[in-house]
Design brief:
mainly alpha; 403 residues; two-stranded antiparallel sheet; 18 helices
Length: 403
């Protein structure tokens, strides 16, 4: 099978905005996003249509993950999460192509935008009413308010998750070729507006990154011409940004202020607050590797079995994110639980898995992926891997297959 059936392709893209819709099986969220991934994986295995080199790296990485815990812990303490994690990364191996990704990405974004409009309006009427609707629809996760406005999260787990996901949409829209300028600007404008309404520092940082790469790419294009229609669109965009100054720049200033706290957090060992939790999540794994014996350095604490180490060393404060044994970014989770062997095998896998032919877009994509992986620590969270996968194949189609 060379192409993924259209119904499965549509299901894959249309379930992205509802990744928090599902139910928990123990600590694992069975999201609606899993359904199209099941079909993709089954079709890939049935037709043996897999990338050989990437499949080898996949096998090596997950073998290390299995070995790191096997014999050290009960098999049920790590096998379920290992299977889910491998299940979510498996689509990167397939050679099955997805056609019409431009239409699919736009439809997916349109669905998300409509839901966010509904969320915004209901949130203005009553914040509690929107929470009640989410509970009724069984949408997991939560959000807060900022200056009396509900932080938009769509049907993602939290606002920062949707903010990062929106930046992947924005990256794709910025690189679209076969689309009118007006439609492209509308997509970009709505994406940026929704990012602003998440009031998420990590989303704003990713947005800044996207803007820098976009400006750099435009500077490389000679003889840029602006007609009247383009000037109107850019003017409206600038006016909206200025109008939203009080709401947009305050979180930016707050994010910059947090940067000044980093030295103090490191020197004092403060693990409370978002800054303390995120910074210590970055350094906890390297510190473990430095202190561990040779076996621990090579294979870590054991896949999906780092909670005891986190609680023992960092879980003494109930106001810290470490209190329940969780960790704040995926890179640290992999390094801590599978050691240097698992960490570098994962990097080698991801390097090939997210490769895109266009160099500048490839660099932009890599930085966005890094931001996504250092912003969240749940290896089995479906949204992060699915948005990376769908954005990758969609960008690839622009530069390779041309829808």
């Amino acid at each position: 099978m060379k192409y993924l059936p259209k119904k499965i392709s549509s299901l894959l893209f249309l379930t992205i905005p509802f990744s928090a819709f599902g139910f928990y099986i123990g600590p694992l969220l069975f999201s609606i996003c899993f359904i199209p991934i099941i079909f993709i994986n089954l079709l890939s295995l049935q037709n043996r249509f897999l990338k050989k080199s990437l499949s080898i790296k996949f096998i090596i990485f997950f073998s290390i993950c299995f070995i790191s815990s096997f014999g050290r812990y009960p098999i049920l303490s790590f096998l379920p999460s290992l299977l889910v994690f491998s299940f979510l990364l498996f689509p990167f191996l397939t050679k099955i192509k997805i056609i019409n990704t431009q239409r699919l990405m736009i439809n997916s974004f349109a669905l998300l935008s409509i839901y966010c409009l509904f969320e915004f309006i209901i949130g203005l009427i009553s914040v509690q009413l929107m929470f009640d609707i989410e509970n009724f629809l069984n949408i997991k996760g939560s959000t807060t308010t900022y200056r009396g406005i509900r932080r938009l999260r769509g049907a993602f787990l939290e606002p920062s998750v949707m903010g990062i996901a929106l930046n992947f949409y924005l990256l794709y829209f910025s690189n679209l070729i076969r689309i009118s300028f007006s439609k492209k600007m509308i997509l970009i404008f709505v994406a940026i507006l929704l990012i602003i309404l998440t009031f998420s520092s990590s989303a704003y940082a990713a947005l800044t990154l996207n803007i820098i790469f976009t400006i750099f790419s435009k500077l490389r294009i000679k003889n840029i011409k602006l007609n009247f229609r383009k000037i109107i669109f850019l003017s409206v965009f600038a006016i909206v940004l200025v109008f939203g100054n009080n709401y947009f720049f305050a979180p930016i200033y707050k994010a910059l202020e947090k940067l000044t706290l980093i030295p103090d957090v490191i020197l004092s060992g403060n693990i409370t607050g978002s800054v303390g939790y995120r910074i210590n999540s970055l350094i906890v794994a390297p510190m473990y590797i430095q202190e561990a014996d040779l076996y621990g350095r090579m294979l870590g604490t054991g896949f999906s079995n780092y909670s005891d180490y986190i609680i023992t060393n960092y879980g003494h404060n109930e106001f810290s994110g470490f209190y329940d044994g969780s960790i704040g970014n995926i890179f640290s989770a992999i390094l801590l639980s599978t050691g240097l062997l698992g960490f570098f095998s994962f990097l080698f896998f991801m390097k090939e898995a997210i490769y895109i032919q266009n160099k500048l877009t490839h660099m932009n994509f890599i930085f966005l992926v890094i931001m996504a992986l250092i912003s969240f620590g749940d290896l089995t969270s479906p949204w992060v891997w699915i948005i990376i996968y769908t954005t990758k194949i969609s960008l690839e189609n622009i530069y390779k297959y041309e829808n």
